[in-house]
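Title: Prediction job returns without error message
Component: structure pipeline
Severity: low
Priority: P3
Assignee: unassigned

Description:
Job completed but the reporter wants confirmation the result is attached to the right record. Sequence as submitted:
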Amino acid sequence: MLAIARALVANPAFLVMDEPTEGLGPMLVAEVATVIRRLKDEGTSILLIEQNAAFAVKVADHVHVMSKGKIVHSSDPAALWENEAIKTQFLGVPGTHDSPL
């Protein structure tokens, strides 16, 4: 949370966020999602690197899934969440149709 706050002090036009939810409890993860949405609404471009797929699809406009350094899937978040094969093979998300969107 401190790293996010420090980055925002500069009022950046582009922000790279690497695993911003790592080690945070559910309430703080929800707060990070709120901050990301607000920044997007204000026009900040964000590159989000995140292993928490359910979180990422909630805040992203477009998603890329990487495996072994290569992009293996690109789509809008809803299409990713509907793709059971990609979720199971690369994200470790068991087959479910419950959408976090």
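Comment from assignee: result matches the submitted record. The chain has two domains: 1-50, 55-101.
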